């Protein structure tokens, strides 16, 4: 195996100078390069949304030089989106000028339908990016080679554009059934879950109704020949109604009910009212937010087994507070949330923590990202009085007593080399592991 790999590497090393010699000797003459291409408009795409097919943009917009690093670009293209009431997405494309175009910023928006294909979405993005960059590219070296095309609407498009009576009254519905199987000779895993939802979204009201059920089963064959089976079941439903007050305030209420083997609950029902204040106008939500959400309500709990507090059921008032900051800018992205909940009739029972993820472009080619969560847990009223076997603990069949939870991830990336990244080469792209060479 090692001899074969060494032979492949040696052949590749020998092939490169041979190919270079063939090109210089005129045997495989390359087509003449376009000297004006170096003066073309430079753009950097910053998009993590569905439909952001960078290779497609590069191959379709050959009149743009696509940069590997944002600091080398004339325009930083920042793409964000929000879910619409029908389940589609509303995209916002912002072209932020840099270098000679510093201070110039322009924005376009487009909306997609929930069943739109990826090709439809990427072509809508292509159109928006082109419309933003064309006025500036027209004044550059390639301006004389650019043309403008117009697609007139057909009769069916004109008919659909006319105002219509929505027989669904802005309601959208979704039903899904999912499952998976995974296993080997001594262990198997399976899960089935389904979801139902009904949503209605207008400028004034946001209504969400949903339910989901799941069944998870794991089987392990032990050395003794015995089979240990762990089963976790969950069922829940909720209803939310939110009223828009103005550009910064919203009021609403929520009802929910659930049962969970993992949390030792037969039924947990809750009713709460809520108010949210956002420092920035809601129209800027895709790019920046600083929102504070407060809820107060009553929770009714019925347990499967007697708890460590000798309870089979109880009713408690509680309140929650969440403060969230989010920003997506040319320097990177940050989302930080402080959250907490507390039972009002027992202030020592609370849950509080911080969650956040930050990605910062520190400089040319250098970026840093961190993602983490830290929670102080003092509200596990549901813990069963009886203990768990070692197998049940390992299989996480029920929640364990804890005072805290944490999760952390971090990474640093440095990329250097050519500043241009406008070439697409899909060869060997469908072979597993091809990108490892």
Cα-atom Rg, whole angstroms? 28 Å
**N-end to C-end Cα span:** 16 Å
- How many helical elements? 5
Largest sheet: 12 strands, antiparallel
N-to-C order of helices and strands: HEHEEEEHHEEEEEEEEEEEHE
Number of β-strand runs: 17
Q: Based on CA inertia axes, which overall geometry fits?
A: globular
Q: What's the CATH class of one domain, please? A: Mainly Beta
Measured by DSSP, the beta-strand proportion falls in: over 45%
Structural class: mainly beta
The stretches of 5 or more residues where confidence is low (pLDDT under 50) are 8-33
What is the arithmetic mean of pLDDT? 85
Indicate the CATH architecture of one domain.
Beta Barrel
The helix content is: 10-25%
Strand order of the largest sheet: 6-7-8-9-10-11-12-13-14-15-16-17
The CATH topology of one domain turns out to be: Porin
What does this structure look like?
This protein starts with a helix and ends in a 23-residue tail after the last strand. 14% of the residues lie in helices and 48% in strands. With 437 residues, it is mainly beta. Among the domains are: 37-146, Double Stranded RNA Binding Domain (2-Layer Sandwich); 245-414, Porin, CATH 2.40.160. The chain is built from five helices and 17 strands. The chain has helices at residues 2-24, 54-60, 118-137, 155-161, 390-394, and strands at residues 41-47, 64-66, 75-83, 89-97, 105-112, 171-183, 187-201, 205-221, 227-244, 249-260, 265-278, 288-303, 313-329, 332-343, 346-363, 366-377, 404-414. Residues 8-33 have low confidence and may be disordered. It is globular. The strands form two sheets. The protein has a twelve-stranded antiparallel sheet, with no helix packed on it. A five-stranded mixed sheet has the order 2-1-3-4-5, with helices on one face. Strand 3 (75-83) and strand 4 form a beta hairpin.
